[in-house]
Design brief:
The protein is mainly alpha-helical and 147 residues long. The protein has helices at 2-35, 43-62, 67-78, 88-97, 103-123, and strands at residues 134-137, 140-143. It has one domain. It has five helices and two strands; from the N terminus they run αααααββ. Strands 1-2 form a two-stranded antiparallel ribbon. The radius of gyration is 20 Å and the shape is elongated.
């Protein structure tokens, strides 16, 4: 089925984009904090980035295979193509770098990466979006009535 093969390829592209967001997002955050780039402190970018690696780490700790990997493999079977065993990142890490390791190594890696992202979140916190009770005074946001 041609449609299943095309959808499987789309899932791979989305999966790779997710991985790139997590990996290159951290690199951009660390570099941006060091160079004073204000956009790396964007609250929604930082929360989404932390949530993305948090989901990956939680899945790995629970022994859950990524839903995108399952979806891609299902579509590949429907298309009559071969699937690959295990997790997307583990498979491609093996294919690209000839790296073989037991699944727990990837779990530790995901969790360590997640803790690094959390550390960057705490040590270089995002700008919190303004909410109720705040108004713009002069050049910045201040709590109303707070002087």
């Amino acid at each position: 089925m041609l449609w299943a093969r095309i959808l499987a390829d789309i899932v791979v592209v989305l999966h790779a984009a997710f991985v790139a967001f997590v990996v290159f997002g951290l690199a951009a955050i660390v570099l941006g904090l060091a160079l004073g780039w204000s956009w790396v402190r964007n609250f929604w970018f930082r929360v989404l980035h932390l949530a993305a690696i948090g989901v990956v780490a939680a899945q790995a700790l629970c022994g859950v295979i990524c839903p995108l990997t399952i979806l891609e493999n299902t579509l590949r079977r429907l298309a009559g193509q071969e699937t690959y065993p295990g997790a997307f990142v583990g498979y491609w890490a093996h294919r690209l770098m000839f790296f073989q390791a037991p699944p727990w190594v990837f779990t530790v890696g995901y969790c360590a990466f997640g803790l690094t992202v959390l550390g960057a979140f705490v040590l270089g916190p995002p700008r919190w979006p303004w909410g109720r009770g705040q108004r713009k005074l002069g050049g910045g946001w201040r709590v109303a009535g707070g002087g």
